[in-house]
Structure formats: C-alpha cells, structure tokens
Amino acid sequence: MANIKKIAVFTSGGDSPGMNAAIRSVVRTCAYLRIVCVGIYRGYEGMIEGDFVSMNARSVNNIINKGGTILKSARSKEFRTKKGREKAYEQLGFSMIDAFVVIGGDGSFTGALQFNKEFNVPFIGIPGTIDNDIFGTRYTLGFDTALNTAVEAIDKIRDTASSHRRLFFVEVMGRDVGHIALNSGLGAGAEEILIPEEDLGLERLLKSLKRSKARGKTSSIVVVAEGDRTRGKNVYELKEYVEKNLPIYDVRVCVLGHMQRGGAPSCYDRVLASRMGVKAVESLVEGKTNFMTGIIDNQITLTPISEAIKGKTKIDKELIRISDIMTT
Length: 328
Ligand code: F6P
Fold this sequence. Notes:
Distance between the termini: 58 Å
Structural class: alpha/beta
Bound molecules: 6-O-phosphono-beta-D-fructofuranose
Largest sheet: 7 strands, mixed
Strand order of the largest sheet: 3-2-1-4-5-10-11
Shape: elongated
Order of helices and strands: EHEHEHEHEHEHEHEHEHEEHH
CATH topology of the largest domain: Rossmann fold
CATH class of the largest domain: Alpha Beta
Helix content: 40-55%
CATH architecture of the largest domain: 3-Layer(aba) Sandwich
Number of domains: 2
C-alpha cells in the first residue's frame, strides 16, 4: 500500500465522450477511500499554471451524461520542455499532490511517463479518445459514442443520397487509424470503407461502384477515414476521380468532423469510464504507477504505459470481409 493522501485528476489532448464520467468515477472513488481529490483544469497547461480546484463527491453531480470535459482539455507545448515540467512539479508540490490520474491519449501518456522519470510522481492513465487507437485496450473512452454518432449521421445522409440517387463520400475521424470508419461503415451499410491501414487502390473502388450500379443500387455511401489516402488522394480528390472516371454518378462529400467528439456518452462509455476510474484510484493506492487501465475480454486490465504508447492497435480484418459480403 502506498501512502497516497491526495490525488489529482485531469483530461488532456482531444476530448471524448465519457471523460466526464471518468472524472466522476475518480472523484467518487477518492471520496469513498477518504483521499483528497483535486481537479486540474486544461491538462498539463493547468498543471504548469497551478489551475487547480478541490473536488468532492458533490462536485461531480449530474455530469455522467455530459459530453466534453468539465475540467477542459489542452495540448500543452510547454509541458514538452524540461522547464515546463519543472514548473508543473513545483505546482504539484505546493498543493501536496501525491499522485495523478491522466485521462487522454498516447501523447498525454508519453508526457506523464517522462514526468515520472524526472520527478517520480506516480500516475495511472485512462485511455480517452474517440479513435480507439491505444494499444492495451479493446475500447477507449468515447469510441462507442462516436460510432453511434457517426452511424446516426450516415443514416441521415443515406436518406438524401437515396432521394437524389447520389453517391456520397462520408469522411469520419481517425487521423492514423480506421477503427471508426470500419465499424461505422459496417454499421451504416456502406458500399466501400477506405482506411489508412489498407490501400485497396482506385481500380477496386471503381469496380465496386460499377458493380453496385449494375446490381440495381441507385445510391451509395463510401465511408472514408480522415487519415486514408487511397493512392495518395484525400476525400475531395477521390470525389473528383470518381466523377471523372464514372460520370454516371452524381457525387457529394460530407465531412462529419468534430461533431463526432461531442454529445452524451453512450451507456457503454459511462460504464467503462466508471470501471476505469475505480481501477485507476485503487491501483495508485496499491502502490502501482505508470500503467494504463484497459478493457480486454470485458475485464478491466492494467498495461504498462511504455507498452501502451509503443504498441499499435490492429484493424479487425474480419470486419472488412463481412462488409464485402454485405455489399453483394
Ligand atoms: O485524436 C482524436 C481526433 O478526434 C482525431 O480523430 C482527429 O484527427 C483529431 O483528434 C482532431 O484534432 P483537433 O481537435 O486538434 O483538430
């Protein structure tokens, strides 16, 4: 058992639905274990500036269902410098903070690990990003909600695509990975799904679109991950390419963008956040540090942060196969 009397919690990097539920869980677990809890505003920026707020069980009333993060978030340039981290360490010292829980993505975890190396402050990470691109967990906080948001939006696009007999390229988030695209594409019945992990080429795209016309489909949806570059083309260039090579199609582009990061978290994300928050605080109390909470086979797990930031998540190729069968 470690002698942890005061724990700080903050959110860092791109926000994701479920972050508030995770803050709530950390704060309430601290209250349950009679540990003092402090919230840090704006991630590492707030840590450097000492922008702290005392939190008790009542500070997190009515936030389990809220999108965004009540503690705000930021990507701090200053924390990347030694000087910035020194300032942050001083601030934690002034407030007598023994350990912290960081809710964010791999950039936030890399910062925490460096900070721990230099100043030995114990921490646990909770993976919060809609991209689901963190090794060591089957789900990151916000992924499930973002999928539901994307599917709902694509369903609406389908209505207008079908009325006008159009082809829509719908870009979903995912800077480096195609998890949102693959899952929302399958869930929304897309004709093709383009992801950064697999460049299937332009020929295949044209072939598949021609085939769907020949089979009597009058409208189509192609879901494209933000980070996809099929033969080096972004979503607008793909539209131009298809218009040029398949003039039978009236083509439109819709970029869903940041709407995917907002909104009330799904029940799955709320439950996951609650479980991970408890695990994070209990782990610190048990003397553990430099771990990330995760969910694997529905069990809450701990993965060393060093592995979580180095490892890569893999696309489920079976989903690609299923999507191909579904477009028959
Ligand atoms: O990492 C989550 C994410 O939503 C990515 O999918 C996207 O590329 C990026 O954040 C957008 O970042 P920003 O909010 O800084 O534009």
